[in-house]
Write a structure and sequence with these properties.
Number of helices of chain B: 16
Oligomer: heterodimer
Number of helices of chain A: 15
Largest sheet of chain B: 5 strands, antiparallel
Structural class of chain A: mainly alpha
Number of strands of chain A: 2
């Protein structure tokens, strides 16, 4: 096992060089460079264009450019952005984190919703609920995200017309000013229901433990959701009275900023989540159907086991194996951003920055992002394989 | 007590010395309030020597001073940091007097050292500032020297018309000087986006307050600014100025409709309608001015006179052919379909909003397929072959390729409309959108034998107020002499008489100082271009600004233009509520 891991890690080195070289070549093969767009500016003369190329090192042969970049990478330096004149990491770092907020929340949402629905659809296949879920899933898959994002924006405008309140945000990730007074008031109103919900689910949990039963998935979800919201509400309440009514975002307390970001993320996560939901739901359903038709399930049922135990203990355990394997694949997705929806909903993620870098041919920003993604993809693959070995007893690495 | 008295005397002396600029707004305003606009992309830097795009310079312009600019009411030169100037030596020397008592936001005086230092750095070839062209005239340097603490002098190698427009940004020498002496790299690393906002020194109406990447740039009033209004109250009136970064035009509209942005420019009739509908439903207290002006940019088709194919080259060099192509441009449909119903036809090179030089009295080859067919017949294309394409006596088909840059919807539609009309009369136009950088390469990089590999390109150039700044397009050896490009900075091998005339007019226009004479020269230039069509102009998109009624100090409808926008000065905009 140990030998296998070492071997895999050693294989990453040539892969890394190959991948980055290929990326570099593809970027350089595309026509034009960072200076090309300036050539259409009537106020720029030939001489300053040539100067700029020379200064940015864009006139040097490709192998030299790649070698220079590589020597920087090996020292952990991603290079200098051509248009920002600062370290590539400082250009993309914060944006990657912003994108992660979306991707993490959307992934959680997808898994929390898709797996139960997939299981349900498999058990009750070809019933009305199954068909409804299928239709909805494919609708979510069919509507392009950027368009759905725009619909969300106009829904937000429409809602604020209807109620004269900002129910949903109109794009962005934060507000310029946070109305802390409103937040503590909202917390005062919402805290009791959240606490009540937590108590109800805790009660159900306790009741099942008393009867020597494990808690169901639904109870877990309820407990987590209500508990988290109660904790979130408690925070402003503890700090509430002494706060000013309105503060600039940059000077607000952490809980208020976190709340504000979550509120802005809500519609965007819905948009991002719906598209991923469909695929996962169908895969889960197919997996589950596959497993349910196996001999050992028939055996389990023949033994007279409770249907619930058959499904959750025997079938589900084997059906989720591909998902476990897929966890490694989520790693590069974490920093890849949430796609065009970030542009339409003005989320300050990595996608808008990457698109700008591509259109300006800011090579080092593009390369930096590709490099990070490549490394994460390779690590993710190794992790996936190890997880698979851990979950699936049929696989042995030796 | 004594100390206080001395200090008071000093302060009074300082006040007596101060020579603030009086900003004449459209109405008296009052201090306070916030101004919020949306911006399509993030700034790249706060450093004026590095900045290359408007997303950076729009913000830098709010906190760094410059000597002079255009008066928003008359378009004549207007002093900013320079309070006055004197032209000597038959226009070869200009002496600028600076405002005494002007201060940076950190309290240091703004004086000639800052101006000369900034000029030196902008002109430095190693720095590659975007303003470098302001310091070179026909390959010779424009020399800047310090006369005394508040006087600088510029010496030009030859008389230069835009000599009084010096809009390059002036930086605090005490911040940039040490870095510059340590090397160009250090200078370029200064004031990048990670610099704490408090460290960015301001000499303009606002100063940087905070920047959240991908979200917003916030500027606050600079109390040390050297401007006042007509009643001697300090400006800017506004306390806070926010750029909200919204990379999508529809999302920008949504923000404006929700009242979260104070101004908006509608891109097409559809957006105009949405704003209007909301105003009529009393959901938004705003005004919109559809088609009040057109934007400065131009779109044109250029034919390649350095074609590999000698048949095409000869064809494109015929003025009759180019006029026939102009007759095939259905500008009405282009405005309807490509610009969403709002825009104006353009016939000559100077942008329509540029009232100081623009003339409408030029030759117009209006849409007329019959006239086009007749002109092509005169060129020998009288009959059609079996496929319906026009052919000449030798059986040569009249065909060429047309490309434009992919992803620009306006240009793609204009090109399609032109192609369809051309095909109707039997001209075989093969249209294809291609990558922007590839397009630039085809246009600007001739092969060793001087040929370029395209037939026709639909492209645009950004316009400006000063026609002399487009000399690279019109002078024979210019790097953007797009229809007939010489190699290695030399004149093209074979030139037509009208090109020489345009070249002469451009050179005269740039070196004539009298405004009335300049206008005459440029009017003639527009006529020659419209007659001969080296570039065949299409349509200009409309400028459809909208604003919330809470803003004061804005232009009334008849004064709005796309050069200055909706207000004469940012300094005199104020919040009514």
């Amino acid at each position: 096992m140990f030998g296998y891991v070492v071997r895999r890690l050693l294989q990453l080195i040539p892969t890394f060089f190959g991948a980055t070289l290929l990326a570099f070549l593809v970027i350089q093969l595309a026509p034009g460079d960072f200076v090309t767009r300036l050539e259409l500016d009537p106020t720029q003369d030939r001489e300053s264009i040539a100067n700029l190329r020379q200064q940015l090192g864009l006139d040097q042969p490709l192998p030299v450019q790649y070698a220079k970049w590589l020597s920087g990478i090996l020292q952990g330096y991603l290079g200098l952005s051509l248009s920002y004149k600062s370290d590539v990491w400082s250009v993309i770092g914060q944006r990657i984190l912003n994108s992660m907020v979306l991707v993490v929340l959307a992934t959680l949402m997808i898994y929390l919703i898709a797996i139960p629905i997939g299981v349900y659809s498999a058990i009750r296949k070809y019933t009305w609920p199954d068909r409804t879920f299928t239709v909805l899933a494919f609708l979510g898959l069919a509507i392009p995200n950027f368009f759905f994002g725009l619909i969300m924006l106009f829904l937000a405008v429409w809602l604020s017309d209807l109620t004269n309140m900002r129910i949903l945000p109109i794009g962005g990730m934060t507000d310029e000013f946070l109305h802390l007074g409103n937040m503590t008031r909202a917390a005062q109103i919402l805290f009791p229901p959240a606490l009540l919900g937590t108590l109800v689910f805790a009660g159900m949990f306790w009741w099942r433990v008393q009867r020597k039963q494990t808690a169901t998935f639904g109870i877990w979800v309820g407990l987590v959701l209500f508990g988290m919201s109660a904790l979130l509400m408690l925070w402003p309440l503890l700090q509430g009275p002494g706060l000013p009514e309105r503060l600039p975002y940059t000077e607000s307390p952490l809980w208020a900023r976190a709340n504000n970001v979550l509120w802005h993320a809500f519609p965007v996560v819905i948009v991002v989540g719906t598209s991923g939901l469909a695929g996962l739901m169908r895969v889960m359903r197919g997996q589950m159907l596959d497993v349910l038709s196996q001999d050992y399930i028939r055996t389990a049922r023949a033994k007279g086991l409770n249907e619930r135990v058959v499904i959750y203990k025997h079938a589900l355990r084997n059906a989720v194996i591909p998902f476990i394997a897929g966890i490694g694949g989520l790693l590069p997705g974490l920093i890849g951003g949430a796609g065009l929806v970030e542009v339409t909903m003005a989320w300050p993620g990595i996608t808008p920055a990457l698109l700008e870098a591509i259109s300006a041919i800011d090579i080092y920003v593009i390369m930096g992002l590709i490099t990070i993604t490549t490394v994460l993809l390779m690590i993710g693959n190794v992790v996936s394989d190890l997880l698979l070995a851990w979950v699936d007893p049929r696989i042995r690495y030796s | 007590m004594k100390k206080l008295l001395v200090l008071g005397m000093l302060a009074l002396a300082g006040l007596a010395l101060a020579q603030p600029k009086v900003f004449k707004g459209t109405e008296p305003g009052r201090a306070g309030g916030a101004y919020r606009i949306t911006s399509i992309s993030d700034p790249r830097t706060w450093n004026p020597f590095v900045a290359r795009e408007t997303s950076s310079t729009d913000i830098i312009a709010l906190f760094l001073p410059y000597l002079t600019t255009y008066d928003p009411y008359t378009q004549a030169p207007e002093g900013r940091l320079a309070k006055s100037w004197e032209v000597r030596n038959n226009g070869l020397t200009v002496i600028f007097k600076l405002r005494e008592g002007a201060k940076w936001s950190d309290g240091q005086a703004i004086d000639a050292d800052d101006v000369i230092f900034s000029a030196t750095v902008h002109a430095d070839q190693r720095v590659n500032s975007n303003s470098r062209s302001s310091f070179i005239l026909d390959g010779q340097p424009i020399r800047w020297t310090k006369v005394d603490q508040f006087t600088v002098r510029a010496d030009f190698p030859k008389p230069y018309a835009p000599a009084l427009i010096q809009g390059w940004y002036i930086v605090p020498e005490h911040v940039f000087g040490p870095a510059y002496r340590a090397g160009v790299q250090q200078l370029q690393a200064l004031w990048n986006l990670d610099t704490p906002a408090a460290q960015v020194v301001s000499g303009g109406p606002f100063k940087l307050d905070s920047y959240v990447k991908g979200e917003r740039v916030v500027l606050v009033r600079n109390p040390n600014y050297w401007g006042v209004d007509e009643r001697n109250n300090p400006v800017a009136y506004l306390e806070r100025y926010t750029f909200q970064i919204v990379p999508d035009l529809n999302a920008q509209l949504a923000r404006f409709l929700a009242g979260e942005a104070d101004t908006f420019s509608a891109a097409n009739a559809d957006q105009v309608a949405q704003v209007l509908e909301r105003i009529r439903a009393n959901r938004l207290r705003a005004e919109i001015f559809p088609n009040v002006d057109v934007t400065l940019g131009t779109n044109f088709i250029v034919f390649n006179w350095n074609n590999k194919d000698s048949f095409k080259e000869n064809l494109f060099r015929q003025v009759k052919f180019r006029r026939a192509m102009a007759h095939l441009m259905d500008k009405k449909s282009m405005i309807e379909v490509a610009l969403g119903g709002l825009g104006q036809a353009q016939w000559s090179p100077i942008s329509i909003p540029n009232k100081a030089f623009f003339t409408d009295d030029v030759a117009k080859f209006e849409f007329s397929p019959q006239k086009a067919a007749q002109l092509l017949a005169e060129l020998g294309f009288r009959s059609k072959n079996r496929d319906g394409w026009l052919v000449n006596a030798q059986g040569k088909v009249l065909e060429f390729n047309l490309v434009t840059n992919q992803g620009n919807n306006v240009r793609e539609r204009i090109a399609q409309i032109f192609r369809d009309e051309a095909r109707k009369v039997g001209v075989k136009v093969e249209y294809r959108p291609i990558d922007f950088n590839e397009l630039v390469r085809q246009l600007t990089s001739p092969a060793a034998d001087g040929t370029r590999d395209f037939d026709a390109i639909l492209i645009g150039l950004t316009g400006g107020i000063e026609p002399a700044f487009s000399r690279n397009v019109w002078e024979l050896n210019g790097s953007l002499h797009a229809w007939n490009l010489g190699t290695g900075g030399k004149n093209p091998a074979k030139v037509e008489a009208f090109e020489v005339l345009i070249d002469t007019l451009m050179k005269r226009g740039a070196t004539t100082l009298d405004q009335a004479q300049r206008r005459q020269i440029y009017v003639q230039f527009q006529k020659v271009v419209a007659e001969n069509l080296p570039l065949i102009y299409t349509v200009a998109p409309a400028y459809n600004p909208a604003r919330l009624t809470r803003l004061g100090g804005m232009f009334p409808k008849e004064q709005i233009n796309s050069i200055n926008g909706q207000a004469p000065y940012i300094e005199t905009i104020f919040a009514k509520e």
